[in-house]
Design brief:
The structure holds two protein chains of two kinds.
Chain A (H helix, E strand, L loop, with lengths): L6 H28 L10 H54 L7 H22 L2 E2 L2 E2 L27 E5 L2 E4 L5 H4 L10 H14 L2 H58 L3 H27 L8
Antiparallel strand pairs in A: 1-2, 3-4
Chain B lengths: L6 H25 L9 E7 L3 E3 L10 E3 L3 E8 L3 H31 L7 H17 L4 H40 L4 H21 L5 H17 L2 E5 L5 E5 L7 E2 L2 E2 L11 H10 L4 H23 L6 E2 L7 E2 L18 H7 L5 H42 L3 H35 L6
Helix pairs in contact in B: 1-11, 2-4, 2-6, 2-7, 2-10, 3-4, 3-9, 4-7, 4-8, 5-6, 8-10
Classes of the chains: A mainly alpha, B mainly alpha.
């Protein structure tokens, strides 16, 4: 005997079919309206964990990108301060070259001394350059002016370094230790720039033949040493800027790659899903139509 | 020897009565065509005992037997107990899988991933806050940002942890309600015990208790969704019911043994609830993994934030930011502009805490998916066996309508026979015996 089919079986299988079609339709419509194919972790467990990882990497990259921009601005600020200093030192050097040539009297040299003192203040001003409220040449004591204006030349900062993270486990030092160039002034007799400048000023004021001779020899040598050191620092700062700019374009590239990877994992392929949606809609309609006519059929209709 | 004169009337009457009863049974089938658990019934008709008529043959003098009509032997209940057993086994498994998928889906919803406001994204914001602080180490606002992001992260961990606990507690309560003193198990089992008694009496009286058997089978179906059910049919008509992995039978004759202890091996809804809430169960393992994430986070941040611990607490429920904005450490050396600590903490992004969390989400998602797949497989199996049962026991209206016509015609024909007999007797009584009057 063949299998008996009862109306209950027909209605329940029709209902199951309708439910399944409708569930598929709902799912597809959710994917379309949210634009995401992972609506909950069970949709793609590995994909979800991968998406969490990639999203964090992406957030990390935007942190790195803003660190890099911060770093570049910091470097630009210090570089322009160092360029100013370089100009100032060049002026002092010219003075030193001119002063000993015997054509200036004590009064002229006194004027030159005043000029040197003004230039010293200018160097201090540059040494106290701030970026976003932070003194860039004070080591990590960024809220303390490293060289307050005035006669006191001792360094107020420290030799701490300030870095910017530009990648996982990768950071560059952005601050320059200006105290290595400027030193602690005449009191410390460290032969650094402020010591040199104060000595030059003294020699100009003193104006004895020995002083004048020193201007052209030991003072000039010290100053040129400082100019050389400053050039070195500028070169270092320039290479840090280059490194940061390279990092910026590397980060941009990575952002593109990871965004694409993330989109691949979690974004709906609209074209594909739209087609699936139409197919499922058609299937659902067909199921409804078939159900509506099958469920009504019975021998009863044909008996009088 | 001749045939009793009124025998024809009796024969026709038996036909009328049998057809009427068959019509009644058909009517009952139609009336119950949508009743849950109803098994269709058929009337078993048998010829009545024949009359022995000796020496009826005038030629040989041999006797013969004359049929005397029809009688109803019994009303059969069409049911296949093998299919019942199969159905119950699969229905237990299905109900277990559905329960697991429901509970795990709730756990999955507690994590609320993927979303821009869940733990993963908050963790990412926390690292981002440290990175911003590294760019402005002296900024109070940036320090406040780090503390705020840490607090939000801790709150989210608290929330998810609390939701997991709630799900576990509710699963335990569900078990207690179902298996408790006035729960479904007690209820169904006591009805089965009662029906066992009534069925035994009816069987002794020789009356097939079809409706009570249907009721008992329906109750057994219901029980099977709670745990594995094994039924042993006893000769006296009672069912001995073993339930899950309980030590004693749940119902034996009219005796009810409940409550009894079950384990996760009981199967069905109850077994799954026990398994999920067990110490090593899925919910506990999620909770432990989340605690581990919180602990890893706290210890890795604290190891770098050496001045004073940034986080206190070692579980997801107890993690707290232990510092004020002023206490946030940005550097291992003096100087407000130092940022080595901030950079190092921001560099924890993608580390053990995050990986542990991503693995946990993957595990939860994988478990939900597995439970759903199992559920849908078992659903197909149960539907198939249910259809087989329906095919055997279900009422087919087409069939009943056909039977209806056949029995109706039979009834009409028996009535016609009665009329014929009557007119024959009329001839005999009215038109004979007046000869010669």
């Amino acid at each position: 005997m063949s299998e008996r089919i009862t109306p209950t079986m027909l209605t329940s299988s029709t209902l199951n079919g309708l439910n399944a079609s409708l569930a598929a339709l709902e799912r597809t419509s959710d994917e379309l309206s949210s634009g995401k194919k992972i609506l909950e972790p069970s949709d793609n467990p590995y994909g979800t964990s991968r998406a969490i990882d990639l999203q964090s990497q992406l957030d990390g990259l935007s942190s790195y990108a803003s660190n890099v921009q911060e770093g570049i601005s910091w470097e630009n600020t210090s570089s322009s301060a160092m360029a100013n200093m370089s100009n100032v030192l060049e002026s002092v050097r010219e003075l030193l070259v001119r002063a000993p040539n015997g054509t200036y009297n004590a009064g002229d040299l006194g004027h030159m001394a005043a000029e040197v003192e003004q230039l010293t203040e200018a160097v201090k001003q540059d040494a106290n350059t701030q970026y976003a409220g932070q003194y860039v040449f004070a080591g990590t004591m960024t809220t303390t002016a490293p060289y307050p204006q005035g006669a006191e030349d001792a360094y107020q900062g420290n030799t701490g370094t300030i870095a910017r993270a530009i990648g996982p486990g990768l950071s560059v030092t952005v601050n320059t230790d200006m105290s290595a160039l400027l030193g602690n002034g005449q009191g410390a007799a460290d032969g650094k720039l402020f010591d040199t400048l104060r000595t030059i000023s003294e020699h100009l004021k003193g104006a004895t033949p020995a002083d004048v001779a020193a201007l052209g020899s030991s003072d000039l040598t010290s100053l040129e040493g400082s100019i050389e050191a400053l050039t070195q620092m500028q070169a270092t700062a320039g290479s840090v800027t280059d490194q940061l700019q390279t990092a910026a374009s590397r980060i941009e590239g990575l952002q593109g790659t990871i965004t694409a990877g993330l989109s691949n994992i979690e974004d709906t392929n609209v074209a594909e899903v739209s087609i699936a949606y139409s197919t499922e809609q058609a299937a659902y309609e067909a199921a409804l139509r078939a159900g509506a006519s099958i469920v009504q059929e019975s021998l009863l209709q044909f008996l009088n | 020897m001749s045939i009793p004169t009124l025998q024809g009337l009796q024969t026709a009457l038996s036909g009328l009565l049998a057809e009427q009863q068959a019509l009644d049974v058909t009517g009952n089938n139609i009336a119950n065509s949508d009743t849950e658990g109803y098994s269709r019934e058929t009337v078993l008709l048998r010829p009545s005992l024949p009359l022995n008529i000796p020496a009826i043959s005038s030629r040989t003098g041999e006797g013969a037997q004359l049929g005397t009509g029809v009688s109803v032997e019994t009303i059969n209940r069409i049911r296949n107990s093998y299919l019942d057993a199969q159905y119950r086994t699969q229905s237990s498994a299905l109900s277990g899988a559905s329960t697991e998928s429901e509970e795990l889906t709730q756990a999955q919803a507690a994590f609320n991933e993927p979303s821009s406001s869940a733990i993963a994204s908050q963790l990412s914001k926390f690292w981002g806050a440290w990175s911003e602080l590294a760019n402005a180490p002296a900024s109070e606002a940036a320090k406040q940002g780090v503390v705020g992001a840490g607090q939000q992260l801790a709150e989210m961990l608290h929330e998810v942890s609390a939701q997991l606990s709630t799900i576990s507690t509710q699963a335990g309560e569900q078990y207690a309600a179902l298996a408790g003193p006035s729960g479904e198990v007690q209820d169904d089992a006591s009805q089965i015990a009662q029906l066992n008694g009534q069925i035994r009496l009816a069987e002794e009286a020789g009356e097939p208790p079809n409706e009570m058997l249907d009721q008992r089978d329906l109750l057994l179906d219901k029980l099977s969704s709670l745990a594995q059910v094994t039924v042993v049919k006893q000769p006296d008509g009672t069912d001995t019911v073993s339930f899950g992995d309980a030590a004693k039978p749940l119902v034996e004759g009219t005796t009810l043994n409940w409550p009894q202890a079950l384990t996760p091996a009981a199967g069905g809804r109850l077994g799954t609830l026990l398994g999920l809430t067990a110490p090593g169960g899925a919910l506990a393992s999620y909770q432990a993994a989340l605690d581990n994430v919180a602990d890893t986070l706290a210890s890795s941040v604290n190891a770098l934030h050496t001045a004073t611990p940034f986080f206190s607490g070692t579980t997801a429920a107890t993690l707290q930011v232990a510092v004020t904005a002023a206490q946030v450490q940005t550097s291992s050396t003096e100087g407000v502009g130092g940022n080595d600590v901030a950079i190092a903490i921001a560099g924890l992004r993608g580390g053990a805490a995050e990986q542990g969390y991503a693995a946990l989400v993957e595990q939860v998602g994988g478990n939900v998916r597995g439970a759903r797949d199992e559920q849908s497989n078992l659903q197909s199996t149960v539907t198939a066996i249910g259809n087989q049962r329906q095919s055997v026991s279900g009422v087919s209206l087409d069939e009943e309508m056909t039977n209806l016509i056949s029995f109706q015609r039979g009834y009409q024909a028996s009535a016609r026979t009665l009329t014929a007999m009557d007119s024959m007797l009329e001839t005999l009584i009215e038109h004979t015996g007046i000869a010669g009057l």
